[in-house]
Design a protein that fits this description.
alpha/beta; 6-stranded mixed sheet; two-stranded antiparallel sheet; 5 helices; 34% helix; globular
Length: 219
Amino acid sequence: MTMTMADRMPDPHSPDASGGPSPAQIRRGRRTALLLFLVGFGPMLLASLMYYTGWLNPTGHTNRGTLVQPVIPVQTLGLEDASGTPLAQRFGPRAADPQWLLLVAATDCGEPCQELLYLARQVNIALGKNANRVGRAAALGQVPAPLSERWDREYRLMERLVPAATPAWRWPEAIDPSRAPRLLLIDPMGNVMMQYGPEHSGKDMLEDLKHLLKLSRFG
């Protein structure tokens, strides 16, 4: 039987001779994966862009906290929980249930630090139905005995984090809790995007969070 040129041409939509997907199938799979990513995380990325730049922001919202520019990946903080699990594993597209996180950080948790602990708790409660979208944690050095004694009563829902066992660990240059306590806002993608200090009020934090949660459908 005589084969024509068309008979000898491979079908781009059929698996190749090795049984693997064809080039066309690979391209189609990549387009599908990209579309799924944009559907799932596009709103979060757009919300971050709008918040940082004010672009297309219909309410003309001005952030009350101090923007961390450029944003710092949460991995840079080098923190882990009591079981040794890195904090960074809770964020990003592969995380099972990523949240926003209010993180109080201080080398010495004196009165200003304790004020931030209190504000983080009250702001979280004030979010009402959105409270479960925001977690709370603390990375503290020296903790006064009175605070330790009442921790389980007042802050049992605030997780304690510790530095990972890495040599010469230190906070990023843009964030230095050894100088003054800070409350850091980390988005569900794992970006340390904003910080607050004793100079900020609970209303400042609450307005920023309400605005971000309204814009974002991720986390």
